[in-house]
Amino acid sequence: MATQQSRQNAALGAPERRIVIGVTGASGVVHAQRLIEFLLAREFDILLSVSRAGRLVMAEELGVSNDPASWGATHGERLRIFPEKDFGAPFCSGSFRFRGMVVIPASMGSVGAIANGVTINNIHRGADVALKERLPLIVVPRETPLSVIHLENLLTLARAGAVILPPTPAFYQHPRTLDDQIDFVVSRVLDALGIDNQLFKRWSE
Ligand SMILES: Cc1cc2nc3c(=O)[nH]c(=O)nc-3n(C[C@H](O)[C@H](O)[C@H](O)COP(=O)(O)O)c2cc1C
């Protein structure tokens, strides 16, 4: 008899249309929201996990009523949300194929866990799987200033193959609003996943 999990898997689109997203307890949750909205509008399948601390920051920065389930308002069936302790989530196994994973925002706690192969939740495990399977892993770390421990953990991840993509604003595209800056960061994440987008005016275009 098919389990609920296997039914979920059966409904997923092609592997290159599946993006795993981990939201951890760092500032800048709005980047994850925008990324997910963009990907859903382009009919990608999203497998999302939000850490306990991620939910705290989400409530603080986006408001308690802003639940990630509502981000899939228009394409809800493509947004699957897994509890952080659900190690039966598809992306916890290397045999499950997906295009790539984004940890956005990535707390220094989660950066440390992933860099050291410690899988406290399924976000860490998903990142572990992406690295071992040589699938794209994009880590959007948020902290300032950075300690030597943070920097060494980030270097370990970069050496293991992750793309370290800090949500650093740029000014050459003359942003007018905060949304412009958010789109800039999200655009660079999409670039790292190889997903075509025109979220900001690129240099020399
Ligand atoms: C409002 C708020 C903002 C936070 N911002 C950051 C941050 O920007 N970077 C960071 O590394 N930790 C931040 N923290 C602390 C982390 O949430 C904390 O270290 C937590 O254990 C991370 O757990 P996780 O990686 O499982 O999500 C913040 C916590 C709160 C409550």
Features:
205 residues; binds flavin mononucleotide; Rossmann fold; 7 helices; 6 strands; alpha/beta; single chain; six-stranded parallel sheet
Helix proportion: 25-40%
Give the C-alpha Rg. 16 Å
pLDDT averaged over residues: 92
Q: What is the makeup of the main sheet?
A: 6 strands, parallel
CATH architecture: 3-Layer(aba) Sandwich
Number of domains: 1
**Which ligands accompany this protein?**
flavin mononucleotide
CATH class: Alpha Beta
N-to-C terminal Cα separation, in Å?
54 Å
Structural class: alpha/beta
* CATH superfamily placement: Flavin prenyltransferase-like
Please give the order of strands in the largest beta sheet: 3-2-1-4-5-6
Question: Which word captures the global form?
Answer: globular
What does this structure look like?
This protein is of the alpha/beta class and about 200 residues long. It has a single domain (about 20-195), classed as Flavin prenyltransferase-like (Rossmann fold, 3-Layer(aba) Sandwich), CATH 3.40.50.1950. The chain contains 7 helices and 6 strands. The chain has helices at about 5-10, 30-40, 50-60, 110-115, 120-130, 150-160, 180-195; strands at about 20-25, 45-50, 80, 100-105, 135-140, 165. A 6-stranded parallel β-sheet has the order 3-2-1-4-5-6, with helices on both faces. Helix 2 (about 30-40) packs across helix 7 (about 180-195) and helix 4 (about 110-115) crosses helix 6. The N and C termini lie far apart (about 55 Å). The protein binds flavin mononucleotide.
